[in-house]
Write a structure and sequence with these properties.
seven-stranded mixed sheet; binds pyridoxal-5'-phosphate; Aspartate Aminotransferase, domain 2; four-stranded mixed sheet; alpha/beta
Length: 404
């Protein structure tokens, strides 16, 4: 039976107001976007999406598929088989229905390969970094973050409510100084290989700085996994820090492993803490089975063919040597990223466009995605590039280089 509310003894019932006629929609609320767009155009900072065909004739030196595994038949098969067996989606968050045996298998394989006690897989490397930084900090924690860190670590710091101090790039003594005198929990965060210039962080010295002050170290090994360390087992293994009680690392499954997703690796108690507290883990649908299956297949392939890691590093060194010999300002690569300085954002955009017109896809990094305001052509070395392809890429880059 419908419930009639009793008349209020305290308030007069307000007279029913006739429903106002809806106003016509006006775009004025978004007019500010046109102003922002015009500013981007003026500054040469417009970004556009360029959907690629499945079989592009262009030579790719822009993707992060360092080992050439994204389209490897075994990896594609691992992804397809997982989708058929487990479904197209994970069906829920990891704590509800989104944890399959495949996720657990991938976590064990990643932990073992990289030398850590435990691992937790998330839907992206971005989510893994947010999870690690926010779950390992609280109000009052001091976070010391390298000035060249990836946006996902920076966003983790922003979300964390901790006090963040930005340390000069790759400077362990600055990290030590920032940690000095802080009473309480502290965490230093760094990329292992910086995405913009491809230089490596001084991990042993950073670990020493942290240990001298009782701080934990979090390393984003997105560009190290599959490239650095024995057979591509990562920068932490290469630095002798894998599995240490005060070290946590994050990885992405979307670069060397040719799939999609991310993971946090560390001591079992840290991983258990993340399962219980990391919001980007708890409130996010589990990684799609196809991505988990693809990553697992790539990991197994890399274990069988460890020479892929060394080849990616060799290709990077080769690119750097030839570009430098041609007079270009290429940064010495520590992993598979090779960065070449451009005189301005406009010049970098034009350079990348000229390369594309000549059949080569190169990345273009410019403000605001670069911490130091320097624009670059960013090349990624792939283990599956042939010597002829390397030579052709260098010829194109040199022939289209801006005149300074
Ligand atoms: C250093 C670094 N960390 C994290 C990420 C994010 O990883 P994902 O693409 O899996 O979200 C990237 C991706 O570009 C990266 O370069």
């Amino acid at each position: 039976m419908p419930h009639d509310p009793a008349p209020s003894l305290l308030y007069d019932t307000p007279p029913a107001t006739p429903a106002a006629a809806p106003r016509p929609a006006s775009g004025a609320a978004f007019d500010w976007i046109d102003t922002a767009r015009a500013e981007r155009h003026r500054a040469g900072l417009v970004r556009t999406l360029r959907p690629r065909p499945a079989d592009s004739p262009l030579l790719d030196l822009a993707s992060n598929d360092y080992l050439g595994l994204a389209r490897h038949p075994e990896v594609a098969h691992g992804a397809a088989e997982a989708a058929h067996r487990w479904g197209a989606g994970a069906t829920g968050s990891r704590l509800v229905t989104g944890s399959t045996e495949l996720h657990a298998q991938l976590e064990r394989a990643l932990a073992e390969f990289c030398g850590f006690e435990a691992a937790l897989v998330l839907s992206s490397g971005y989510a893994a970094n947010l999870a690690a930084v926010t779950a390992l900090t609280a109000r009052g924690t001091l976070v010391v973050s390298d000035a060249g860190n990836h946006a996902s670590l920076i966003d983790g710091c922003r979300l964390s409510r901790a006090r963040t101090e930005v340390a000069p790039h790759a400077d362990p003594e600055a990290v030590r100084a920032a940690l000095t005198g802080h009473d309480g929990r502290a965490l230093a965060v760094t990329d292992s290989v910086f995405s913009v210039d491809g230089d490596a962080a001084p991990l042993p010295a950073l670990a020493d700085a942290c240990r001298s002050r009782g701080a934990a170290l979090l390393v984003d090994d997105a560009h190290g996994l599959g490239v650095l360390g024995d057979g591509g087992s990562g920068a932490l293994r290469a630095a002798g820090l894998a599995g240490d009680a005060d070290v946590v690392t994050t990885v992405t499954l979307s670069k060397s492993l040719g799939s999609q997703g991310g993971a946090v690796l560390g001591p079992a108690r840290v991983i258990e803490h993340l399962v219980n507290t990391a919001r980007t883990f708890i409130f996010d649908t589990g990684l799609a089975p196809a991505a988990a299956g693809g990553a697992l297949a790539a990991l197994r392939l890399l274990q069988r063919e460890p020479q892929r890691a060394a080849r990616a590093r060799q290709v990077a060194r080769e690119l750097h040597a030839r570009l430098t010999a041609a007079g270009l300002a290429a940064v010495r690569p520590d992993a598979a990223v090779v960065s070449v300085r451009a005189p301005s954002p406009e010049a970098a955009v034009r350079w990348a466009a000229d390369c594309r017109a000549a059949g080569l896809v190169a990345g273009c990094f410019r403000p605001p995605s670069v911490p130091d305001g320097i624009s670059r052509l960013r090349l990624t070395a792939r283990a599956d590039l042939t010597d002829d392809q390397i030579a052709a890429a260098v010829d194109t880059i040199v022939a289209t280089a801006p005149q300074v």
